[in-house]
Amino acid sequence: MTEQGHGAPAEGPPVHPVQPVPTAPTPPTPPTPPTPPSASTPGPPVETVKQHQRLSPLTPFIRGPILLLAFVGASWDNVLVDGDLGSTGLTVAVLLVAGAAYGLASWLVTKYWIDDVELRIDTGVLFRRSRRIRIDRLQGVDIVQPLLGRVFGLAELRFDVAGGEREGSLAFLPHGEALGLRRVLLERRDDLRGERPETPAGDAAPGQQPQERVLARLDLGRLVGSLALSSEMLLVLLTVAALAVAYGMTGSFAVVGGIVPALLGLGLALARRLTASYNFVVAESSQGLHISRGLTSLSSQTINLSRIQGLVVQEPLLWRSAGWARLEVSVAGYESGQGEEAQASSVLMPVAPVDEVHALARRVLGRDIRSVPLTRTTRRARWLAPLSAWTLALGQDGELLVSRRGFWVRRLDVVPPGRVQSVRMSQGPLQRRLGLADVVVHSPPGPAQVRGPLREAGDARRFLVEAVEACRDARRTTGQPSFALIPPAPETTQ
Fold this sequence. Notes:
Blueprint: E1 53-54, H1 59-63, H2 65-81, H3 86-109, E2 111-114, E3 118-123, E4 129-134, E5 138-145, H4 147-152, E6 154-161, E7 165-174, H5 175-193, E8 213-217, H6 220-228, H7 231-250, H8 259-277, E9 281-285, E10 288-293, E11 298-303, E12 308-316, H9 317-320, E13 324-331, H10 340-346, E14 347-353, H11 354-365, E15 375-376, E16 393-396, E17 401-405, E18 409-415, E19 422-426, H12 429-434, E20 436-442, E21 451-456, H13 457-478, E22 492-493
Antiparallel strand pairs: 1-2, 2-3, 3-4, 5-6, 5-11, 6-7, 8-9, 9-10, 10-11, 12-13, 12-18, 13-14, 15-16, 16-17, 17-18, 19-20, 19-22, 20-21
């Protein structure tokens, strides 16, 4: 008997069941390999360097030009005249070979890694050193190309971290690799902070170099003119005049021999300013303001607008007839001080027409700083500052704190209330007798310093109260902790 499907029994001869035909077993389907991410596949915005990387193998040749110059300077006369290297030249040659060997060993042991949260740099030949830099603490990643680095297409990466310290560098990498590594670090930093800016239309997608829009470019003729009208050039002219007078009176330069080194130092300072500001360009991209400059040594710097703590517009006396000014900014995490490197990292425009400088300032702060009303100090201040009292002015409008001062170099300092750390009012003995007081606005280190010296005591107190209230409102808006107003003491208020 056979079984049939559901339905009525069939009539006719019996139906024999069909035997199944044996077939080969179907092989199991291999798992589908994961599809590698493409440019259109969403994924992590920044790749990490899991395996250690090395610097360029040409690094020892870039680090050794000083020893090479020393070798040539010590032995060239003996080589040309006597045909012999000489003992001094031979010693320097040995040192040169030893330095090259040490440079090669240093290159072999120098490695770097990038993981999810930190950059690791291992260095040291005799003493090993491993430096760990948290990526979310990076404030700036600058690219510098010295003259020999440009010849070989190499660049150095310099890292500035929170606190105003320079935390290591990578010297040297191929220039294209340095650009890519800076992009990786900045994007990773923004991701860790949750500050990744939205990519505007027409800008580069994540993983690509952002497109830039030039905001300002320094004219070479204006740069040369600004150096000709600088205080250093004035000192050079006065020194040359003194040499001429001394030679006319004595017939010899021996009596003024000490002036010659000073003259050479001033000339060298002017030359450094010319080469450092040559081809100065300010551009804008999704990462912030990009600054490139340099003649013999190229430097590339990116400033995030959210890290700018204040700015200062400077107008030297010799520039005012030409209508020129200089713009500097205080950037959180960048080193501060009077050194050349610290000053270069804060310059946003070395020299430009006043209107162009204020246009850049408006791009940084989002408004015209000249619209803030300023009030001059009282006439009684002339007793303590007879030459500069008429230049002193101070004001605020709830969005910006502004001060103006200076005769030889007139400066306009601006700090947003949200960047202020404290406000202080103080009076000395003579100030108390004249009814005057000083007001100081403390902000992060940098060139921007809002000061109100020799203010009428009542005006100083009112400015103090209004400034503290503006700072409290700004911090309340951004969610930052505020500070309270301490009841004013007879002599000092803060």
